What we know:
This protein is α/β, with parallel strands linked by helices. It is built from eleven helices and ten strands. The strands form two sheets. Strands 4-3-1-2-9-10 form a six-stranded parallel beta sheet, with helices on both faces. β1, α1 and β2 form a beta-alpha-beta unit. α1 packs across α10. The chain is globular, with a radius of gyration of 18 Å. The protein starts with 7 loop residues before the first strand and ends in an 8-residue tail after the last strand. 45% of the residues are buried. The structure holds D-glutamic acid. D-glutamic acid binds next to α3. The site of D-glutamic acid (DGL) has 17 residues, from α3.
Amino acid sequence: MSHNNNPIGVFDSGVGGLSVFRQILTDLPGEMLLYMADSGCAPYGNKSADFVVQRSFTITEFLLEQGAKAVVVACNTATAASIAQLRARFDIPIIGIEPALKPAVAETRSGVVGILATSNTVRSDKFAALLDRHSEHTRVLVQPCPGLADCVERGELSGLRPRFLLERYLEPLLAHGADTLVLGCTHYPFLIPLIQRLTGPGVAILDPSPAVAQQLRRQLELGELLAESGAPGGERYFTSGQPEQTLPVVSRLLGYPLTLEVLPEPYRPG
Ligand code: DGL
């Protein structure tokens, strides 16, 4: 079996995809990983689908220029808008993410599942198809969460603002008996401690990151693209936003200091 030590590219509208990135770091330790936070354009949740598709293309081109052997779209909103077009255009494995509705339906005891996601994700055709596939015997309550990803983008994980928004968004789900919550936006896993405090311990909170890392490994194995065993791995971070604003948030979310590089000019938002 052959190997490939080229990097894996991971991107999101901002810092949220780090919830997926840290899982990949843990599960595939020999891989060189590139993280691209499109913070100059965040949030994607209220942009047009065309805009999100354009940014997804531009960022994938940048990651390919860095030698990426695979790309992880660590963003539900970008996956819903652009994954089919990305796969049609680029000839490398492209791994997306979608709300973990299937395991939630398998796990719920009350028969009521709540999904938190961005407005764009819940409006997408891909999301409608997901609901169709999995909501036959389960009541699925869909809650768009404007403003919530922005809190994480600013590094606000426990203050008044995220608490106020979450109380509002969780109330109808809990009132209708949801006992399982699907986090349909990669920013939200960073809010799990606050969400769990508000729901109490009886509600399960599902994060799809482990399934994405597993799917990535499977694709790399299939294409004989895994790094050699014993390869040192490594990390590089890029942003299209203001590094002095994004850097402290990225370091805080990952829990260690790092260097953040600025996305080169041709790939920056117009
Ligand atoms: N993290 C993103 C997602 O998974 C998008 C958040 C946003 O930019 O609105 O949907």
